[in-house]
């Protein structure tokens, strides 16, 4: 029902390559399309798949079209490519924000006899395999065979250990503001706060305890990744603006507690966080996970 011809728009990018390799392993005939011809040729050669520099030529026979480009360009690409697709084709995006994308996809299925599905893989291009990672899914709709096509695609993902979580645009963007935007923000600010003290990280590491060491590792791993993607996840997500307001208010409250040496309020803030954390299913394992991470880190440094 899915068909085996799959085109990846943005196929020379990190996630385009991940999904190109994944679907090739599952017997799909892959065509890559991207704006940069040299990068496109290199990616296609490495994956041993076809490439096509013309957008129209790349998608005209495709059964599945996967859009893997920057967030800010995804909606416009969906609008551009929709009229080029054959009847019953399945158009899929993997962007990190959904409100505008889903709106555009709903317009596309009204105007053209195609199917649309919005995915968000909760992993990056450094992934080795997809087992036990989460894929968020928003159903849009399309032709009479829509549900069967989506079911077949989900089955491929689940057979490889992916955890599929269905959601809706508003909930998706609010929770992504918290699960991606907030950790990115904290780690960017952590490194910049330390930088502004003019203390070199190498010297600080000599004084480090377990908490600082892990925080430093998390921050340094994040800061080496794609800056544009991090910027878009925070700047383009309206839900993140409300998070910033809450954060600003919390910082002011925290500063006031410290400056006034208000230990009862500090204790209450601490206990509020503790009680909230206890609602998490993984709470009781967190301390064990913490030291397991440290153990792995120290063993890797020795090696």
What does this structure look like?
There is one protein chain. Helix 4 runs parallel beside helix 5, helix 7 packs across helix 9 (210-223) and helix 7 packs across helix 11. This protein starts with a strand and ends with a helix. It folds into 2 domains: 5-167, Rossmann fold (3-Layer(aba) Sandwich), CATH 3.40.50; 171-302, 6-phosphogluconate dehydrogenase C-terminal fold (Orthogonal Bundle). The relative contact order is 0.08. It has helices spanning 14-25, 37-47, 55-59, 71-81, 99-111, 146-159, 169-196, 201-205, 210-223, 227-235, 238-259, 263-277, 286-302; strands at residues 5-9, 29-33, 50-51, 64-67, 90-93, 115-121, 134-141, 163-166. The chain has 13 helices and 8 strands. The chain is α/β, with parallel strands linked by helices and 303 residues long. The chain has an 8-stranded mixed β-sheet, sandwiched between helices.
């Amino acid at each position: 029902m899915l068909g085996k011809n799959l085109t990846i728009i943005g196929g020379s990018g990190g996630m385009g390559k991940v999904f190109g390799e994944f679907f090739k392993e599952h017997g799909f005939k892959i065509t890559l399309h991207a704006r940069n011809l040299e990068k496109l040729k290199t990616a296609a050669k490495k994956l041993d798949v076809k490439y096509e520099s013309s957008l129209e030529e790349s998608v005209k026979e495709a059964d599945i079209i996967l859009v893997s480009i920057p967030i800010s360009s995804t909606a416009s690409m969906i609008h551009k490519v929709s009229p080029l697709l054959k009847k019953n084709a399945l158009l899929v995006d993997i962007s990190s924000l959904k409100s505008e994308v889903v709106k555009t996809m709903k317009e596309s299925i009204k105007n053209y006899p195609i199917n649309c599905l919005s995915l968000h893989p909760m992993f990056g291009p450094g992934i080795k395999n997809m087992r036990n990672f989460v894929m968020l899914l928003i159903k849009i709709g399309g032709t009479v065979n829509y549900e069967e096509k989506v079911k077949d695609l989900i089955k491929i993902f689940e057979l490889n250990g992916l955890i599929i979580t269905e959601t809706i645009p508003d909930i998706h963007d609010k929770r992504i503001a918290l699960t991606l935007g907030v950790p990115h923000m904290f780690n960017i600010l952590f490194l910049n706060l330390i930088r502004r003290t003019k203390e070199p990280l190498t010297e600080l590491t000599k004084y480090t305890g377990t908490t600082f060491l892990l925080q430093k590792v998390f921050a340094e791993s994040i800061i080496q990744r794609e800056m544009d993607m991090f910027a878009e996840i925070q700047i383009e997500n309206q839900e993140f603006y409300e998070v910033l307001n809450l954060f600003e208010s919390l910082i002011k409250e925290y500063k006031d507690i410290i400056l006034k040496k208000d230990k009862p309020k500090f204790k209450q803030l601490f206990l509020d966080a503790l009680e909230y954390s206890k609602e998490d299913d993984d709470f009781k394992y967190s301390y064990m996970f913490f030291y397991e991470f440290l153990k792995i880190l120290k063993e890797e440094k020795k090696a």
